[in-house]
Design brief:
The chain has helices spanning 32-40, 60-68, 81-91, 109-122, 146-155, 159-164, 167-170, 199-212, 221-230, 250-263, 267-277; strands at 3-8, 48-54, 72-76, 96-101, 126-128, 142-145, 178-180. With 280 residues, the protein is an alpha/beta fold.
């Protein structure tokens, strides 16, 4: 059985351009993407690591990083990420795909292995630690059987499902066996983000790496959680960042807009949405 990590990576980013090329630690010349690859190499369950990038000219830089880090690479569609992931897995003859995003430089190989092990034990079609948010954003791990990914590739028609790879599977629990992995309540931090999507995220990550990386180049999820307990002020850096999310309805999206308005002290807009768009 061949288990491989497929890391989605591209330079284009709506909120922070070239985020996966930024240095961590700051000034180290080691990119965010390189940190993701190096951490996944410490997994005991993965047989291979594939960088799934695009055919865009600018993404040749990502191919160079993959080669420098001795990882495989595949180049495919910019927008149809489902297609890109499926074809990368097919080309590399994977039986099980571990989907990781390239903006998570603190991804923990022990958590990755935990999710893989749970997937194998339960004989699930799809296993994840992100369906019900318990872990902080940045440790997301999704494990998918190849034939299930192929099913999604052939049957997902919605543009959103093509862009986000696993939403078609998650929206059809009657068709697929889905398993959820949860963290210990002791380390329950669903509102913390340890990923890179904004400048504040990058500052936060630089601080984490400054504190932990000199002593352990593969510091763990638990090391980060303990650091945040010792130095809770670090979370102030990312306090006002709004996480990207998937919403099922316009009403849910408007509720999120209210949250953003409240964070930015846009009281008139918040009141207007409540009164006129959400009927009170």
């Amino acid at each position: 059985m061949k288990i491989g990590a497929v890391i989605q990576a591209r330079r284009a980013s709506r909120r922070l351009a070239n985020k996966i090329l930024k240095e961590l630690p700051y000034g180290s010349k080691i990119t965010v993407l390189a940190q993701v690859i190096r951490r996944l190499k410490l997994s005991k369950k993965l047989n291979s690591i594939i960088i799934a990038t695009t055919l865009e000219k600018e993404d040749i830089e990502i191919v160079k990083i993959a080669k420098n880090e001795a990882a495989k690479f595949f180049r495919g569609s910019m927008e149809d990420v489902l297609s890109r992931s499926y074809l990368a897995a097919k080309e590399n003859n994977l039986d099980i795909i571990v989907r990781i995003t390239s903006d998570c430089p603190c991804i923990d190989p022990e958590i990755v292995d935990l999710v893989i092990e749970k997937h194998l034990q339960t004989k699930a079609d799809y296993t994840s630690n992100r369906l019900e948010r318990r872990y902080p954003v940045g440790f997301d791990t999704e494990v998918i059987n190849f034939h299930i990914l192929e099913n999604a590739y052939k049957n997902a028609k919605d543009d959103y499902d093509r862009e986000h790879v696993t939403t078609y599977i998650c929206k059809n629990p009657d068709k697929f066996t889905i398993t959820q992995v949860k963290t210990s309540p002791k380390f329950y931090e669903p509102d913390v983000r340890i990923t890179i999507d904004t400048e504040e995220d990058y500052i936060f990550l630089c601080a984490i790496f400054d504190y932990l990386y000199p002593w352990n180049k593969c510091f763990t999820y638990y090391d980060i959680m303990n650091l945040l307990k010792e130095k809770p002020w670090l979370k102030l850096i990312i306090k006002k960042i709004v996480m990207k999310d998937i919403f099922e309805s316009l009403e849910d999206e408007l509720k999120e807009v209210i949250k953003i308005s409240d964070l930015q002290d846009l009281k008139k807009a918040s009141v207007f949405i409540r009164r006129h768009l959400l009927n009170g």
